[in-house]
């Protein structure tokens, strides 16, 4: 089932490289508008939020639409890794608060070694 939005975390990713990838994957990006710590743009018709160093060295990329080429976070993570060559982390599926705290720490990392489910405590 298609997720209503997508969020992935990119390790040490360069914003310019991410912008180039978004241009290719989603359509031409508008210039980034900084709002506090975050940056926002439109990639094609998709509102995008970039939060540098959201968790340590990890940058958050949030796509606020279900109109992307990817069904879910993992599909986007795979594409981002293939294009950028940096480790990507994402939730293993949509997470709801009702699922409890333990499930909130379950993540999938995508890197040169493949895909692996991990426990990542982000707080």
Automatic annotation (TrEMBL):
Q: What domain of life is recorded for the organism? A: Bacteria
Protein's recorded name: VOC domain-containing protein
This chain's source organism reads Metapseudomonas resinovorans
């Amino acid at each position: 089932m298609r997720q209503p939005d997508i969020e992935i975390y990119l390790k040490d990713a360069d914003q310019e490289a991410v912008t180039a990838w978004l241009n290719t994957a989603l359509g031409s990006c508008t210039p980034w508008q900084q709002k506090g710590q975050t940056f926002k743009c439109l990639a094609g018709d998709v509102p995008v939020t970039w939060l540098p160093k959201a968790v340590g060295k990890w940058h958050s990329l949030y796509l606020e639409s279900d109109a992307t080429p990817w069904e879910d976070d993992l599909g986007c993570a795979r594409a981002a890794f293939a294009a950028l060559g940096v480790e990507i982390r994402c939730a293993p599926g949509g997470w709801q608060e009702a699922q409890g705290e333990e499930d909130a720490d379950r993540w999938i990392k995508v890197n040169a070694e493949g895909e692996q489910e991990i426990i990542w405590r982000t707080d």
